[in-house]
Amino acid sequence: MPESTECPPFRLGESRFDQGSFYGRLRHFLDVIDPRTLFVSEKHLNECMKLLDQFKNGTLPPGVTNVQLWEAQKIKQAIIHPDTGEKIPMPFRMSGFVPFGTPVVVGLLLPNQTFASTIFWQWLNQSHNACVNYCNRNATKPTPMSTFFQGYLGAVSSAVTIAVGLNILIKRAEHFSPATRILVQRFIPFPAVASANVCNVLLMRHTELSEGISVLDDKGNVVGTSKLAARHALMETSLTRVVLPMPILLLPPLIMAILERLPLLQKHPRLALPVHSMVCLSAFGLALPVAISLFPQNSQIHVSELEPEISAATECKILTYNKGL
């Protein structure tokens, strides 16, 4: 296909794909989490940044294509924090979330967990999530470390409490057969992780509910600060954080329950762990872009759903706000 059809004209700082549709957002976030950017050399990164600077300054050398510019921006955005200008550590980049997070998911879903192993894997998962959240935070305004620490403690506490509590309840359920008990235990990580994710969002961003977030008109001008828009933003983000672990933590137990009955795995039980790991990796790689594509980064809301002073301050009927990730 010609470049104009396959690749749109380059726009610095914008997405290559239409953010108004789910498919466009999905393609955008598949770029964001592309693990190939983890292997970009320092030299290639510097070349990409130089190319983007040349575009910005109008000194682009002849022959540079839109494809090259979009690829350069993809690499820079995957590695460099947009606010601090510093490199994000590899395990905590969005492109590293699946490869570095999969071993933790495998650990969460291991059968026959003890209380100690349950606590360890829930703690490790929330620690990894907290580091990813911090390294990809909005750094335009300084946020005290106490806020992140509060969210981290709340997430770890809720995850461990729910996981251990459900484990105790299941072990005390006398009407469960041993096989049923093992199967049910495999599903415990989901409610624990989902509730911890919501707890983390609310604790880390609770100030938005009391102070509000900026809402913008169709020209990008700030109309005002809205607490109702903040409520919408937190609800959408919380829903995303519940949907995200659903296929990751619910599909592998179901799939493994079927695969473990196959003669191959019954004859070679040592294959169970590598097969389990591949199932988790596949589920994780599918779930992450789908979950974060559910809502656009910049959501729209009708002025009738906002405070009266916001409606009175603009003639626009539809306003925009940044919901966060």
From TrEMBL:
Location in or out of the cell: Mitochondrion membrane
Molecular function GO labels: citrate transmembrane transporter activity; monoatomic ion transmembrane transporter activity
Record protein name field: Sidoreflexin
Transmembrane feature ranges: 151-170, 242-259, 271-295
Membrane topology (UniProt): Multi-pass membrane protein
Leader sequence segment: none
NCBIfam families, alphabetized: mtc (TIGR00798)
Annotated GO CC locations: mitochondrial inner membrane
Keywords, in A-Z order: Amino-acid transport, Membrane, Mitochondrion, Transmembrane, Transmembrane helix, Transport
Protein origin, superkingdom: Eukaryota
Family: Belongs to the sideroflexin family.
PANTHER family assigned: SIDEROFLEXIN, SIDEROFLEXIN-5
InterPro entries: Mtc
BP GO annotations: amino acid transport; mitochondrial transmembrane transport
